[in-house]
Specification:
Length: 918
């Protein structure tokens, strides 16, 4: 067979031999396919008994999903290109690729796969190899992969929904039932080829769904060898993709997303998904999760189920957060704090000390606008909202567990255990050491010794710690930037107008400019470090060589989230808990490196800066992600179609899909990571930004449809994968929820002014009013500002201000004794009352919230009672149908022929078989 011939290869394989080969692959044998056991590429050329070649041209049917004979369904597509015009130096590489490709295809034939190749309509160098899995191969690998298939209709009546009385309204928020019909529910069991008669096989062509067929096909492609030299084997389609032997490998979409296929056998599921799920007009509808799972597999389905459930729960949090924001906005003008700051007779006469060595004196009423903005977020409603969010996150996780348990049962992933998951091909290829399996007691191959594994893990941990230190170094650099820019702006302002004590608009310019530009620079640094670390994290995980894909994803998830956590949240933690906490007082400021005066908070407090930082990072991240997820794939596809345009040519289904973008090797990893980072912003710092759930809700409403549009229209069909739950993200979410209680309590205690106000209100503001004392917030501003004598300045630069002003005393934010007191500039009793109140608040709130979380977790069961009943019923039927009946057959055979016991056993078996509804 010449290089450009079009061929169809038919496999001649014994079913029992095929089954043994598949079992050997699962048991990780050293030599899966000996070299002499496979046909070579020379035998294919010469026309052996294993394979024969004939022409297979494209029949002109653009919607066809079958081989050229119109009978055998296409389960996978392999794409390669030949370059006849390559120079002499590249010919050796091309010949090596050709030998590997032909050997690989011969291996697939030996495993029972049928292949058919057809040339490209748009590019004569490109060839598409169509993969078909016959019935025997499907049955064999369905048993190997423990795929669960129906054995009987679900005879348990489902409980009616509590919202059925509102169905006349809710039906408009669900996909059209005439287009997407609800599928029948079955009890299922792991497929066994020897008990095929007990499974509901009505139509062999429809018994295995297309997602199941694609999953089994990719399993075979990942384990078929392409080169064996002695004891060294090389196998797997991924290695062939990386080396350029094949240009692409993917399952087919069933039709165009915007045009219904006219083929009778086409289910048009992609068309339905686009119209009822991905189209912008369906943004208000619930997701067709069963159809998503059927078309893309359980792993995609569980992601969109989680994202949809998270978005629905966010509506409650967003409503409460918006109410708190409106409350703060309405009360900003009536707040005693705002009135005293903005009052010319109070705030206008309070001269504040300079905040840096080159800064000027300023009056408190210059921060009037900032104080009003601060009151929007720093009020008693925020405290209530923070406690509410701590309870909300617990309810979210507990209700998600219940919903996830329902999906596990409905989608047959309840018994999807890790030990059933096959090892990664990359892991199998590196196995050269032996060790005794502690479970089975059988010796098995492993890629490295225990010592080697420890070395690899240590190198990985060291690399992650290095990058985390790099992030912390960037935070220090941005802090230095804040100091330098603020000092520079303030010095410039002082040169222009040094004698003016009320530079209201001018003073705020350097302060706000420093905060906003530092936040933007921090966001840019975050995105750059993300792109760099992403490659490092993948390299480290590949170096560690996890055994299964689940192990690989969990290891990468932990590395990426740990880095992203520090990268995204470190600047927020710095502003919330470190900035402005160790500044000393004007006469003795705390200095970094003995030179730079430590950074102080904005005159309105650090809380408003934390809100600004959160808004910029959340907004910038959402915009950047949408550019990457929507704009870039769309532009790439547009360019690809333009470069491969063909006038008036009918393009087959497989070539239309080739023009789409390839799916990521990490699948949904980045989608989960994006949402979990957002979940952290919503929960960890919600006490400073009640609008975070609102922004997250708006983003998620777009995110669901954008992701749906992306994978339905812009990407090739994703290889379906099995998944029981959201994996390592579940414990990460639980950890974030626990940490959120601490961070919000500390933000309220140490970042906001709520605790000092409460202490003043209940302890220091009692005024007699008749026979009953009354509490008021009047005078709080004066009590929260300490007095400093300007002659006590130690800095020469600050003391120079005395030569051009008549200021003798100034005020600063702290609780210290005034000058002339025998404990001059030491902390007063108010300070210790506030510290005690802050610690008591943190302890009390944490214990109350954690106790509430514990009670809710205990009261709400993880698995609904109805699901438990169905699981027990399914196990019982599996035991009766697949095991006890066979046991009775064996017992009958052991009885003497014609005996009464044998006759009764036959009658009993006949009655039971009649009772079973097949």
């Amino acid at each position: 067979m010449s290089e450009n011939n079009i061929f169809e290869m038919e496999s001649v394989c014994d079913p029992e031999e095929l089954r043994e080969d598949a079992q050997l692959s699962m048991m990780e044998e050293e030599a899966v396919y000996p070299e002499e056991f496979l046909p070579t590429y020379h035998s294919i050329k010469e026309g052996s008994t294993v394979a024969k070649a004939r022409q297979a041209e494209f029949n002109g049917n653009a919607d066809s999903l079958f081989f050229n004979d119109g009978v055998r369904r296409i389960d996978f597509i392999l794409v390669y290109e030949d370059d006849d015009k390559a120079d002499f130096e590249k010919r050796h590489t091309i010949q090596r690729r050709k030998r590997r490709r032909e050997y690989f295809e011969a291996s697939l034939m030996k495993m029972g796969i049928e292949l058919e190749a057809t040339p490209s309509v748009l590019d004569e160098r490109r060839t598409f190899v169509k993969v078909h899995m016959p019935w025997e191969v499907l049955c064999t690998y369905a048993e190997v992969l423990h795929i669960k298939l129906p054995i009987q209709l679900n005879d348990l009546s489902s409980r009616p929904s509590a919202w059925r009385c509102l169905s006349f309204l809710t039906k408009y928020f669900y996909p059209d039932e005439e287009l997407i019909r609800k599928e029948a529910e079955f009890f299922t069991a792991p497929f066994e080829k020897s008990r095929l008669d007990y499974f509901l096989v009505k139509d062999r062509d429809l018994f295995f769904t297309q997602a199941m067929r694609s999953r089994m096909a990719f399993y075979i492609l990942s384990r078929a060898p392409y080169e064996i030299r002695g004891s060294t084997k090389k196998f797997g389609i991924n290695k062939l993709l990386d080396s350029g032997v094949y240009k692409a490998v993917y399952p087919l979409h069933d039709c165009r997303f915007n045009v219904r296929s006219e083929e009778e056998s086409c289910p048009n599921e992609r068309f339905l998904l686009y119209n009822e799920w991905a189209h912008p007009k369906s943004f208000y509808k619930m997701q067709p999760l069963d159809l998503i799972r059927k078309y893309y597999g359980e792993k995609i389905g569980i992601y969109f189920a989680w994202l949809g459930f998270y978005t629905i729960m966010l509506t409650v949090a967003a409503a409460v957060g918006l109410a708190c924001f409106i409350y703060g906005y309405k009360t900003q003008e009536t707040s005693t704090w705002t009135k005293e700051v903005c009052d010319p007779e109070i705030g206008g006469k309070l001269v504040m000390c300079p905040q840096c060595d080159s800064c000027m004196y300023w009056t408190l009423n210059s921060t009037c606008d900032t104080s009003k903005k601060l009151c929007i977020f720093d009020n008693f409603g925020t405290l209530v909202f923070a406690v509410f969010m701590s309870v909300w996150v617990t309810l979210f996780l507990e209700f998600w567990k219940r919903y996830q348990a329902e999906l596990e049962y409905q989608w047959d992933t309840v018994e999807f255990l890790e030990q059933e998951e096959p090892p990664r091909p990359e892991y199998e290829a590196k196995c050269k050491y032996e060790r005794k399996n502690p479970v089975t007691g059988v010796k098995e191959k492993v890629p490295f010794t225990s010592c080697g594994r420890c070395v690899r893990v240590s190198i990985g941990m060291g690399t992650v710690l290095f990058w985390i230190m790099l992030i912390l170094a960037s935070i220090v650099a941005i802090t230095v930037y804040r100091l330098v820019v603020f000092i520079t702006f303030s010095a410039k302002l002082r040169e222009n107008d040094l004698k003016n004590l009320e530079p209201i608009k001018e003073y705020m310019t350097p302060q706000m400019a420093t905060s906003v530009t530092a936040s933007i620079i921090s966001f840019v640094v975050i995105m750059i470090l993300n792109m760099l670390y992403e490659r490092v994290a993948i390299w480290i995980t590949d170096f560690e060589l996890p055994r299964t894909k689940t192990d690989y994803e969990n290891s990468l998830t932990l590395k990426m989230f740990l880095f992203q956590f520090v990268n995204y949240y470190s600047s927020c933690f710095y502003i919330a808990f470190f900035k402005g906490k160790t500044v000393g007082y004007p006469g003795k400021p705390f200095r970094l490196l003995g030179e730079y005066r430590n950074e102080e908070c904005d005159p309105g407090g650090c809380l408003i800066e934390l809100t600004t930082q959160l808004a910029i990072i959340m907004g910038g991240k959402a915009i950047w992600n949408n550019i990457q997820e929507v704009l870039l794939p769309w532009v790439k596809n547009l360019i690809f179609r333009y470069c491969n345009r063909a006038a008036e040519k009918v393009t087959p289904r497989w070539e239309q899909d080739y023009q789409l973008q390839p799916s990521s090797k990490l699948g949904l990893f980045y989608e989960y990571l994006e949402m979990v980072i957002q979940f952290g912003f919503v929960t960890l710092f919600v006490a400073s930004f009640p609008l975070a759930p609102v922004l997250a809700l708006i983003n998620n409403l777009f995110e669901i449809r954008v992701d749906a549009w992306k994978i339905t229209t812009q990407f090739r069909r994703i290889v379906p994968e099995k998944a029981q739950d959201i994996g390592a993200w579940q414990p990460i979410l639980q950890g974030v929820a626990i940490l959120a209680v601490v961070t919000n309590a500390m933000i309220i205690a140490f970042t906001s002014d709520m605790i000092p106000r409460l202490v003043y209100y209940w302890s220091f503001s009692v005024f007699p009013y008749g026979d009953h004392p009354t509490h008021t917030m009047e005078g709080y501003i004066n009590s929260s500002l300490s007095v400093f004598n300007t002659r006590d300045f130690n800095s020469t630069r600050s003391a120079n201000l005395l030569k051009v002003s008549n200021v003798t005393t100034c005020r600063y934010r702290d609780f210290r004794f005034p000058p002339g007191h025998h404990r001059e500039y030491e902390h007063n009793v108010y300070y210790w009352h506030v510290i005690a109140a802050k610690m008591a608040f943190i302890i009390v709130v944490e214990h109350i919230v954690y106790f509430t979380k514990f009670v809710l977790s205990y009261v709400i069961p993880d698995v609904p009672y109805a699901v438990k009943e169905q699981i027990k019923r399914e196990k019982y039927l599996t035991q009766v149908i697949l095991h006890e009946t066979n046991l009775k057959l064996v017992t009958r055979r052991l009885k003497p022929a014609g005996s009464d016991d044998a006759s009764r056993a036959d009658a009993q078996i006949s009655r039971e078989e009649m009772d079973l509804d097949f």
